[in-house]
Amino acid sequence: MPTTLHGSGPVHYRKEGAGPGLVMVHGTGGDAVSNYAHLVPGLADVRTVITPDYAGSGLTADPGGDLTLDLLAGQVAAAFEEPSDLVGFSLGAAVAAKVAAERPELVRRLVLIAGWTHLADSRLELGLRTWARLAATDPESFAAYGPLMAFGPEFVSAAGADTLMVGEPPKGTLRQIELDLRVDLRELLPKITAPTLVVGSTRDYLIPVEHARALHAALPGSEYAELDSGHVVLHERPAEITALIRDFIGVRDLIGSGTS
Asked: Which residue range or ranges hold the AB hydrolase-1 domain (predicted)?
């Protein structure tokens, strides 16, 4: 697995495919494999797909100290090999927005999935604080709460409790949830110049879809799409989310220039 150096230490990432770069940033409690391994084959024919693990996830260690968007964005930016398209999911959407706002020379096009601008309402705050409290005190309840908040009812029923509750989350999950509670993109969003697609999920119980709509509204000129899914649309609607990404950063580019 390749690594790149950042001031916080080595950042591990996966790389597959050929063509211009596509960097994909995972969400809280996820990593490059759990969030994106099943999507990469559907994108690697048109892009060199790079999926970094940021601090506390996958093989990238948590360096301690304050866990901030600055740190995670710096780690993700270090994984770029050239100006690239950039996709971020959940906390990864906040990280991707930070990279796009502060390193515009790196980002060609931007896709923000299941994101939010700031802790705008009590529903969002209660959901995240409960998730954090269970992560800190009650592993069994945490394992159950995650699927209930992450997926739509039909997906949970079809997958089954035993499947969805298997496995330990990355060690950095609690600190990442605590960062979720501090996310505030309002001053960063006006700095984003890359063409942007915002994607919301209509049955998102963790980050209600109204937050994706507000993110879109805060980015004049951005495009917007909604899918009938829970929060983890990457797994509930993999074909649909892959098609949206391909259309926005892949197929149009190829048609438009014949080379990108």
From this structure: 22-242
β-strands 107-113, 48-52: how paired?
unpaired
- Please give the structure tokens belonging to residue 237: 């609607």
- The answer to whether the beta carbons of residues 87 and 207 sit under 8 Å apart is no
> How confident is the model over 219-231, as pLDDT tens digits?
999 999 999 999 9
At 251 the pLDDT is 54
145 pLDDT more than 50: yes
pLDDT (0 to 100) of residue 258: 38
What does the DSSP 8-state code read for residue 183?
-
Helices (H), 103-152: 122-137, 139-150
Helix or strand run (H / E) with residue 23: strand 21-25
Report all structural domains of the chain as residue ranges with CATH numbers, in order of start.
3-257 (3.40.50.1820)
List CB contacts of 212: < 8 A, sequence separation 6 or more. Answer: 112, 114, 115, 116, 198, 199, 200, 201, 204, 224, 226
pLDDT at 197 over 80: yes
Q: Which residues share a beta bridge with 6?
A: 9
Residue 253, pLDDT above cutoff 50? no
- Angle subtended at Cα 168 by Cα 26 and Cα 245, rounded to the nearest 5 degrees: 20
Radius of gyration of the chain (CA): 17
- Residues known to be catalytic: 90, 204, 231
Is residue 199 scored above 70 in pLDDT?
yes
Q: By C-alpha distance, which of 25, 33, 27 is closest to 1?
A: 33
